[in-house]
Design goal:
alpha/beta, Beta-lactamase, D-tyrosyl-trna(Tyr) Deacylase, Chain: A, five-stranded mixed sheet, 24% strand, single chain
């Protein structure tokens, strides 16, 4: 009897692996995978037992699945209810009778990644108008000084050093500043003509974000292949590539080179429009080379809770938010708001969680750097660790897109077998596709998985289809 039972169990295990192995063999045999590297690991989320793996410890570029590490470090170390505060105040002497301020309006950045974000319109409302109202309520009618934004919470190197030049001027390459605003993104609107013509810039929103951009664009085809090239704090840059033909209003989203100064400019203009005279121009603590002191606070604007920010971070894969969280960790735990300090805290968190970090290389919080490297087992081990963190696991898993329904997975994993059974973070860079998250099998088991593929040469859609097949077999056979 026992021998029969052992045979039955052995047959079950072989059958269980065959479907996954066949799906893996199929993707590995694809001609576009001849020079590719693959790391894959699937563990039982409860026990940590291995379900299936392939090169699980090979360290590869994870792309945006790096955001899972950043999210978990922030949730554990800062807590899901953590918030950021931006304050409004003034320095100097205010004559209550005349309303004249012999001093400056000061906006102090608190590292809020979402201030004025389109993702949180209901939360912030028209916060700038509210601030102008608070200045008026304070009795200020004339300002002899400037509007100064104190952006000193983080260092003055807003972009991780290992990012690519071609990413920096575009919305997804926006740097994280001590004060960030509007997702550190502005819009360049174009009208385009026929093939080969030069698109015409029709407006910039907000107008204060206008910089001197050399237009090297051409109208061609129907897809967006336009890129903005500009460095942080710069006043010039250029746009090159192609954007679709015959469009009345085509929009490129670019990164704001100096968000603190932009906000100072906007506030100054709004004060002037409100009839509050101001003599000085817009400035920042970086430009002034000093941090304002003795500030009278007249208003505070709090961010949404951290778990709400992380939900957008992972659903929409917002690089800016991840970079802010890394820098905030550095500021809170090392009093140094730099990327290097923050990534050091993230690595420390992983080690204390029992994760082997020997082959982990972290250059940023978002995964945009091609110099990041982790293994599938590293990611899955951390996902298994998170399952037992009652204080934030529900918030974490709800931040992951649902298969075929929302976020970056809305167009993928459409097979009905994935419905309500897969939540995961995707990652994509040139010649890189990765997925990591949780799946529930037909038998009710919850598994944590990670699949990372680097340096394939074929269409990404074909690679993703192969990944979908591996996970489908995992759901069906476990």
């Amino acid at each position: 009897m026992y021998r029969k039972l052992i045979i039955i169990i052995s047959i079950h295990i072989v059958l269980n692996l065959n479907g996954q192995e066949k799906a893996l063999d199929l993707i590995l045999s694809d001609s576009s995978m001849s020079g590719a590297s693959v790391s894959m690991c699937i563990l039982d989320a409860g026990s940590g037992n291995t379900v299936f793996e392939y090169n699980p410890t090979q360290s590869l570029m994870p792309a945006s699945t790096m955001k899972l590490i950043t999210s978990l470090a922030a949730l554990e170390l800062l807590g899901p209810a953590y918030t950021f505060t931006t304050s409004l105040g003034y320095t100097g002497i205010l004559d209550k009778r005349t309303g004249k301020l012999e001093g400056d309006i000061i906006i102090t950045g608190g590292g809020d990644p979402a201030l004025g974000s389109s993702y949180f319109r209901d939360h912030y409302g028209d916060f700038i108008n509210d601030w102008i109202g608070e200045i008026r309520k304070a009795g200020i009618r004339e300002i002899a000084g400037k509007v100064i934004v104190d952006d000193s919470r983080y260092d003055n190197e807003p972009v991780p050093s290992k990012w690519l030049w071609e990413d920096l001027g575009n919305y997804y390459g926006a740097g994280a500043f001590g004060l960030s605003v509007f997702d550190n993104t502005y819009e360049v609107h174009f009208r385009t003509g026929g093939t080969g013509t030069i698109p015409r810039i029709t407006r910039i929103n907000p107008p204060e974000a206008a910089t001197e951009l050399t237009n090297k664009l051409r109208a061609e085809g129907s897809t967006d292949n336009g890129y903005v090239y500009a460095a942080p704090y710069s006043n010039t840059g250029w746009i090159s590539g192609t954007i679709p033909v015959n469009r009345n209003d085509f929009v490129l989203r670019a990164s704001i080179p100096d968000p603190p100064r932009l906000l100072a400019s906007i506030i100054r203009n709004r004060l002037d429009s409100a009839g509050i005279r101001i003599q000085g121009g817009p400035s920042t603590s970086r430009i002034e080379n000093r941090v304002p002191g003795d500030i009278v606070i007249i208003a505070r604007t709090n961010s949404p809770r951290l778990d709400s920010i992380i939900r957008i971070l992972n659903h929409e894969s917002v690089n800016l938010y991840a970079e802010h969280l890394v820098r905030e960790l550095g500021r809170v735990f090392m009093n140094n708001g730099s990327t290097a300090s923050g990534t050091g805290i993230v690595l420390k968190f992983m080690k204390e969680a029992g994760i082997n970090t020997k082959s982990v290389f972290i250059e940023d919080g978002s995964g945009l750097s091609p110099f990041n490297a982790v293994s599938a087992r590293t990611l899955v081990s951390l996902l298994c660790y998170a399952v037992n963190r009652e204080s934030y696991f529900n918030q974490f898993i709800s931040s992951l897109p649902r298969a075929g329904k929302d976020g970056t997975l809305a167009g993928y994993f459409k097979d009905p077998v994935f419905s309500s059974r897969l939540r995961a973070k995707s990652g994509s860079l040139t010649r890189t596709r990765s997925y990591a998250g949780y799946i529930e099998t037909m038998s009710g088991r919850v598994l944590a998985f990670s699949i990372i593929i680097n340096n394939f040469s074929g269409p990404p859609r074909r690679i993703v289809s192969g990944i979908e097949e591996i996970l489908k077999e995992t759901i069906l056979q476990n």
